[in-house]
Amino acid sequence: MARKAKTLGVNQPVPQSRDEAAAAVAEIGVANREVARIEAAMNDEIATLKKAAEEQANPLKQRVATLTEGLKFWAEANRDVLTGGGKTKTADLGTGKVMWRLRPPSVRIAGMERVIDAIKTLGLHAFLRTKEEVNKEALLADPDKARTIAGVTIGSEGEDFVVEPFEAEISGAAA
To answer: pLDDT digit string (tens) for 101-114?
Structure first.
């Protein structure tokens, strides 16, 4: 006796025939295209608002940059007085503060292979890092052997249900 698959009670329409299923796929296509139109309109509005905001903000940003640069020259000329002879890195001006902050050190490498070779030649191996990691691609390529390793599990690829409504493209359109 063949067992019927049990399904949980669903609270949405379930197609009862191939024709109803085809109609559902078509309706999904219509809804997806409408969502795409709504998103495109939204993005057009966002682009317009962004451009207007940038045009409004640009003169203000330029003014801030000009004032900041002038303030920097003044603060540098008066740094000793402002910082109490270097006791602090912050000066309170009443309407705000000016501060001097050290950036953290950084390393820039020009020609990675050449630098690695130089480090090896000089014997400065503390400046090299060896990274060891499991090659998952190799495990997937030989799953039977990989399963024999403690801690390795090769999972199922799984299965997704996908609805792909028919979408035709306009030929001859410039992209």
So the answer is: 999 989 999 999 99
pTM beyond 0.70: the answer is: no
The token pair at 119 is 């480090």
DSSP collapsed to 3 states, the chain: CCCCCCCCCCCCCCCCCHHHHHHHHHHHHHHHHHHHHHHHHHHHHHHHHHHHHHHHHHHHHHHHHHHHHHHHHHHHHCHHHHCCCCCCCEEECCCCEEECCCCCCCCCCCCHHHHHHHHHHHCCHHHCCCCCCCCHHHHHHCHHHHCCCCCCCCCCCCCCCCCCCCCCCCCCCCC
pLDDT of residue 4: 53
Domain boundaries, the chain: 18-101
Cα distance between residue 123 and residue 121, in whole Å: 5
